[in-house]
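> @MW can you paste both from yesterday?
MW: sure, first one:
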Amino acid sequence: MAKIRPNEPIPQNNLRQAEVPETAEVLGNPDGSAPAFALRIERCLFFFLPGVPREYHRIVQEMVIPRLLQANVVLRSRILQCYGVTESKLDEMVAPIREAHPEVRFGFRTKFPENHLSLAALAPDAAAAEESLARVEKLCREVLGDLVYGQDGVTFAQAVGERVAARGETICCAESCTGGLLAQLLTEVPGSSRWAAGGFVTYSYELKETALGVPHQMLQKHGAVSEQVARAMAEGARTRSEATWTLAITGIAGPEGGTPQKPVGTVWLALSGKNGTTAKLMHYRGDRGQVRLQSAYGALQLLREALRQGAS
């Protein structure tokens, strides 16, 4: 708690912090001047906490959690991680389920470029909470389908990598504008050696030619950001790495380098496997970091779709 010397005037900011609703229960603050307090409105109990992390965490551990454990309710929760759908569209898709099942609370969170749906079931006992959560989760998965890639903290790259590893296969990357970001996403997960074979970062024309075998004439005729070069990068990486799958990314991340024909955000993605190579043109919006991250996710999505269709 903040200390003030005797006879020292209390700062106005501290006086304002002492103002709480009349019906609130003041919980105090052992480490600061902004008190936490609880307020009950009908059947709901709200906790209002200071924002300083050290103060917040101590109050949660010592005051909030013990109160919640005395409430005779059990909480069960699930986070469904989605890619390829906006938050507003996600909300719209699950709205009928939310309205039909008020016993489960729905929440939405954007973690660019993903959107997450959280489900929380409160019940008098664990069995009832788990039953409610399972019922609503099943309905949400049926509506959202393949937009859900994972749950409770799995990364997008991990979800794709695990599917590749389950088939006894591997991935190699050939990257230009992402500069190794795709390889980073694939390898930052413990156990990623089961699916990650390696990668090539070929930013310049020269390295695209020498490291991946992209023909000089192709680069001169079509430019690095082209379908032809994306395909050649993927095929060159597959020949040199002998990985089952290779993903190639070449584009203009910005903020400079765009043209009327190829504006910033223009990205070519390519996927090569034993049955051939596919390429896809994308137009991403956002700053440089957002374009790069969307490009890496887009490449993973290209592989994810191929796996879903049973390709090889």
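MW: second:
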Amino acid sequence: MDFIEFLDLLREKLVSSYDLYDEFELEGFAFDFYAKFFMRTERYIATKKAVIYGMETNDYFLVKRVDNLERADLEEYLDWAKTNIEVIVKPHDEHMASSLTLVLVVDQEPDQDLVKLVNKTKFHRGFSFGFKGWVDLRLVVYSLDEGLFISNKKGREVKDLFIQ
């Protein structure tokens, strides 16, 4: 499978629930594909104008093709994601949870050192002691040649999107 086919398959799976964008640039990094999902739940009394409370859940996908993924490149992407998380996720009083899925697509299987780094990557940030919600980072490295899916623990939640 080539990268165009990969993006087409991902688009097919996300199109019904996500807003999709190609060639997306954010804070100095260019991504090949960006998708965002927004869900709001409200509780109200009698009419929808009398809202008691609301909760928002967001999901973001950033997909980047990387020719030769090295440890330094992966660390740079992770640092970028951690630094710019509040640019992507905009916490407020009704924000409950968000997930940022960073997908790095490579041609060949990464080395074992890189696989270990991906597997042990964790990132969870609460906003205002959790009162404005939290965000989790899902890290996915997908090898086109082998169809190999590598992810951190949170990334396994989206494995079905990549395995056919």
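> thanks! The longest helix spans residues 71-83.
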